[in-house]
Design brief:
Elements (H helix, E strand, L loop, with lengths): L8 E4 L1 H8 L5 E6 L3 H8 L5 E3 L7 E6 L2 E7 L1 E5 L6 E5 L3 H6 L9 E4 L3 E3 L4 H7 L1 E2 L5 H7 L2 H13 L2 E2 L1 H10 L8 H12 L4 H10 L3 H4 L1 H5 L13 H51 L4 H11 L7 H4 L9 H9 L4 H4 L1 E2 L5 E2 L3 H15 L4 H13 L6 H4 L3 H11 L3 H10 L6 H25 L10 H8 L5 H17 L4 H14 L9
Parallel strand pairs: 2-5, 10-11
Antiparallel strand pairs: 1-2, 1-8, 3-4, 4-5, 6-7, 8-9, 12-13
Helix pairs in contact: 5-7, 6-8, 6-9, 12-13, 12-15, 12-21, 15-18, 15-21, 17-18, 20-22
């Protein structure tokens, strides 16, 4: 189409890079000498859908046969020293377009329809050698678009590459330039970095070049602290080890869940087949009774397709940003809670609570959504909850509270808690692992018995009001919380026993049978 219209077209950038690496290409990026109006004139009759959101930057998006495509006019862009937005100038040739790209591994193209490979800056060699390098001078590239410094760290994490010495030096010199980039764009790059195959390496690059001080200063601060057990050079190194272990464990838990889901699906399929056979047999041997047999069988058959696993909030998807970021941030409260005891020991009391507040504040500054912020900060707050289980043991009530407090984050809390064991003392590590194995086993057994993922009082609000003869108000909430505490402490009471306990509690309240104010 473009050739027929007298225009150039080339597959470019990440699409070429990912194709050479054999990675999935969910969308395709093209570049052309056609301006946005000309692009629209060419693609409108052919595309299934077209959007112009990026038109000001020369980009037209379209959908064709469920494939997302972006076509951008040759361009050169640069950042004003005090601006967060790029200044765009359209170009007229492919080579000038490629030189403005962030790294050589993204400055390759394939001219179409000739299928001519274009690689003026040695991108293929860098891809082969696993090296992140800029097409021109790194300091100029990062001055034009400071976010490229974070992209360098992201590629280190995503691809397992190293960075060119010039790139590293320029990142160190230009670190403060990241301040002009919007929090949202920084956040998006950080998420991609954390979700890479080597997030530790990406974070280390940001720390070594001083960039992390501008976006996650709490991580830098951890370098100043030794943990109370002297297991690591500093808390920062410990946190990176926890991150490494969380990456490994999320894959383990995801595999277990997938295996359990497959077993469940196979069992339900077998049950469906058994039901069908029973119906067929009843239909063939006892004329006139098939409807009754089918109705009875339907009561035992699964209702509709198997969706429980897909809707399970405990399901871990790899990569899981929430558990990984919590692993990185879980000890950021230590610097501000460090205290020295008279005998020279170091304590970090309440660093879990303080760290959770700090995490919320930082994620808010980076414009994370409320749900993600709440989940990560809650994991930070809960990461010490397990300790003491192996020494003193827990009652069933304590196990219920652990599960209820974690809620939908329980599987992630399993991962974080296990990852937080970084001691070099093999015997201690084994003891903690066995203790957590025991806790998970108890959780499974209690869950089978009591459905811990949905713990509720034995009586609901309406029943409470009917029994006590009260109207909606604070007293109903107080009674509900009392019954919930009883449920946590003693397990299911049953409606009759719950009513007896409720009436006794109510009689002990101020005013006897009158509603508390």
């Amino acid at each position: 189409m473009f050739s027929a219209a007298g225009r150039e077209l080339a597959l470019v950038g990440g699409s070429v890079r990912d194709g050479l690496l054999g990675r999935p290409m969910p969308d395709l990026d093209f570049t052309t000498d056609a301006d946005p109006d000309a692009i629209l004139a060419i693609v409108n009759p052919w595309a299934d859908a077209v959007w112009e959101i990026g038109r000001a930057f020369g980009t037209i998006g379209l959908l064709k046969d469920e494939l997302q495509i972006e076509i951008t006019t040759y361009r050169a862009e640069a950042y004003d020293p005090d601006s967060r937005k790029p200044t765009v100038a359209f170009g007229d040739n492919l080579d000038d377009d490629l030189v403005r790209r962030d790294f050589t591994i993204g400055a390759m193209a394939v001219r179409l329809p000739e299928r001519v490979f274009v690689d003026p800056f040695g991108g293929l060699a860098d891809l082969t050698n696993g090296l992140v390098r800029t097409p021109g001078k790194a300091i100029d590239s990062f001055s034009d678009d400071p976010l490229r410094m974070m992209r360098a760290a992201r590629f280190v994490s995503q691809l397992g590459f190293g960075v060119d010495a010039e790139v590293r030096e320029a990142m160190s010199q230009m670190a403060e330039r990241i301040d002009i980039i919007s929090a949202e764009r920084v956040r998006d790059e950080l998420v991609k970095l954390i979700c890479g195959i080597r997030p530790r390496a990406g974070i280390e690059l940001l720390v070594e070049t001083g960039i992390v001080e501008r976006i996650l200063p709490e991580v830098t601060d951890m370098q100043l602290e030794r943990d109370e057990h002297h297991r690591h050079k500093d808390v920062y190194q410990h946190s990176l080890t926890v991150l490494d272990q969380a990456v490994d464990l999320e894959a383990v838990y995801a595999a277990r869940q997938a295996e359990a889901a497959a077993e469940k699906a196979a069992a339900e399929k077998a049950a469906e087949q058994a039901v069908e056979q029973a119906v067929e047999q009843a239909d063939s041997t006892t004329p006139g009774t098939a409807p009754e047999a089918e109705g009875a069988a339907a009561q035992d058959a699964p209702a509709g397709p198997v969706t429980a696993v897909a809707e399970d909030p405990q399901r871990i998807m790899v990569p899981d940003f929430i558990v990984r970021f919590a692993a990185l941030m879980h000890d950021i409260g230590k610097p501000s809670t460090r205290r020295f005891t008279p005998d020279g020991a170091v304590t970090f009391y309440h660093h879990d609570v303080v760290g959770a507040k700090m995490t919320r504040k930082r994620m808010k500054a980076l414009r994370f959504d409320k749900a993600t912020t709440k989940a990560v900060s809650r994991l930070v707050e809960l990461h010490l909850r397990f300790y003491g289980y192996g020494d003193a043991g827990w009652t069933d009530s304590a196990v219920r509270r652990y599960v209820t407090d974690a809620g939908e984050l329980l599987t992630r809390l399993h991962i974080l808690t296990r990852s937080d064991v970084t001691t070099r003392n093999r015997r201690k590590a084994e003891r903690l692992a066995h203790a957590y194995d025991d806790l998970e086993h108890r959780i499974e057994k209690l869950a089978e018995r009591e459905k811990l993922d949905a713990v509720r009082p034995d009586l609901d609000g309406r029943q409470i009001m009917d029994i006590l003869g009260i109207s909606p108000g604070p007293a109903v909430g107080q009674a509900y919380q009392f019954l919930l505490a009883q449920r946590m402490e003693h397990g299911p009471l049953g409606a009759q026993r719950a009513e007896e306990v409720l009436r006794r509690w109510w009689a002990e309240q101020d005013g006897g049978s009158q509603q508390p104010q």
